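INFO batch 0412 | record 1 of 1 | parsing
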Amino acid sequence: MQADEGIARRLQRCDPETWSGIYEEYFPRIYRYIALRVSNREEAEDMAGQVFLKALESISSFKWRGVPVSAWLFRIAHNQVIDYWRNAKSKGSLPLDESLVSNDIDPEEVAEMNLDIGRLVQALRQLTKAQREVIELRFAAELSTAEVAKTLGKSQGAVKVLQHNALKTLRRRLSELEQL
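INFO prediction complete | emitting tokens
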């Protein structure tokens, strides 16, 4: 906890080494979290970069409340995703992710992978919003149970229950979908 408070204070002093370390440690996690939610690699990369830009712009108003810096960053990422979907709905369309198309990949493998991804997405839709957030933060963003709890403002026990129930539902749903 004291380490996180020290990091927050160094970020507020705009210490370049601290900002660099935070960026290097959390960019891949934040990118995966966003990419899972927007399904567009280029957009996710841009949005992950924007998370750090927004963090830098708002660090002067950051108040230490015992919550890790990672929770603050993931809250910014969460808000970026909400804004993305709000804007996508108002535009009436979503971009095609051209980066998924490649001449080097076997079409059969791509079809199989798309089927698996489709099943997973369909199964994830069966989860509650809270369960989905726990799964995304635990597995896409690779946060610990404690970090997820602080990010979501829940107890570690509540996060463990949500994760257990979510995984149980996912296993059951994926098994059902595989039999179709």
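INFO post-check: Residues 102-180 form a domain with the Arc Repressor Mutant, subunit A fold (CATH 1.10.10.10).
INFO record closed
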